[in-house]
Amino acid sequence: MITIIPAIDMIGGECVRLTQGDYDRKTSYYKDPVEVALRYADCGIRRLHLVDLDGAKASHPVNLAVLERIVSRTPLEVQYGGGIKSKEALEAVFSSGAKRAICGSIAATQPDMFSRWLADFGPQRMVLGADTRDGLISINGWQQTATMGVEELIEHFRPVGLSQVICTDITQDGMLSGPSTSLYTKLQAVFPEIDITVSGGIGSWSDIEELDRLGLRRTYLVRPTPGNSTINNPRQSATT
Q: Which of 131, 169, 173, 207 is catalytic?
């Protein structure tokens, strides 16, 4: 069963696309993320990936008001990431209506804290954001590089019940040139019990079909931009 999760990246309350994670290569597409969320809810999408890029740079959630509006006006299950670096911030994200929280920087820099969150809130609500550039984990809004690789980061939380990972190949993100299939096939082979969401580079329905043909996990993150043919055919994208 294929699950497509549209992603909305936010800066200044607007929907944007960064090219390879570069804040200086930003394209704005929609003024109101709620309008986009309503569109996808109308097409049958069930789950939305909401990224607070302002929060990622500020080290605390900035766009919770947008999250609250989306949750109040749509039936979407929202997973929220960006700037979740304290328990207070995590609780604020959940209080604002998110079903799942995505944590990357805190997992890489304070793994004991993320392990406690997995225990306290449950692996069904906590998602590890394992974003990578050239084999190493990127943190703090993709502005810094950690010293560990993707497999090392995931392996650290395997014994404490980690069940969900979103892995973005930053070099492919925003390029619409196809995902890094070799990365995901390797991760799936190493961690068969963990749901690993493919993210970065998906630009057409043929990319989805290729991922499916390779037998990869059938959860794919797609960013809604006018140049993305998968998202621009939302009824096809909503296939589940």
A: 131
Q: Does this model's pTM top 0.85?
A: yes
Burial of 213 (0-12, 13-18, 19+ CB in 10 A): exposed
d(CA 149, CA 215) in angstroms, rounded, equals 24
For 162-213, what is each residue's pLDDT tens digit?
999 999 888 876 667 888 899 999 999 999 999 999 988 888 888 888 888 8
Q: Please say if 131 is a catalytic residue.
A: yes
Question: In what helix (H) or strand (E) does residue 138 lie, and over which residues does it extend?
Answer: strand 136-139
Structure tokens at 19: 């090219």
Whole-number Å distance between alpha carbons of 156 and 179: 25
Residue 237 has pLDDT above 50, yes or no: no
Could you say which of 9, 52, 169, 173 is catalytic? Answer: 9
